[in-house]
Design goal:
3% strand, mainly alpha
């Protein structure tokens, strides 16, 4: 899903939630399936996860959690990762695994802890415990399954 598609869904949700009481599950389902292009079964599973199966209205926080995160083009992904590395790598020697973990858990649309654990298994670390920026961003953008999720 692109950033533009995500923003359109958010705008439509806000229109439906004009009174601030949340949006019916039926309307959220229609929005995500018809306008968001998601599979109905996947949306139903998300709704069950968010509501616990109850007939509850969906608030903004829950809706944000349900909308697929925009990934961006490979070039945009590489640029975001380079910017994040640059912010942490103030001395130009690279970042540590701990810094990378913190970055992935907290930057933008953060990954979950299990997703980070899985990703960290693939990270190449040099003898000083530093992550090679180019190798990492290349792996993440072009070869890692989460990059296309």
């Amino acid at each position: 899903m692109t950033q533009e598609q995500s923003e359109t869904l958010w705008d439509r949700f806000n229109e439906l939630n004009a009174d601030g009481t949340g949006v019916s599950q039926k309307d959220v389902r229609a929005l995500l399936v018809d306008e968001g292009g998601l599979e109905r079964a996947a949306v139903d599973a998300l709704l069950r996860d968010v509501t616990g199966g109850a007939d509850a209205r969906i608030d903004a926080r829950s809706f944000i959690a349900m909308v697929p995160k925009p990934v961006g083009t490979p070039t945009e992904q590489v640029q975001r990762m380079h910017d994040a590395f640059k912010a942490l790598d103030t001395d130009g020697t690279g970042i540590t695994q701990a810094q990378l973990r913190q970055l992935l858990l907290n930057l933008g649309y953060a990954l979950t802890s299990p997703e980070v654990d899985e990703l960290m298994k693939e990270v190449v670390v040099d003898s000083e415990g530093r992550i090679a920026q180019d190798a990492f961003t290349d792996m993440l953008v072009t070869g890692y399954p989460l990059a296309s999720a």
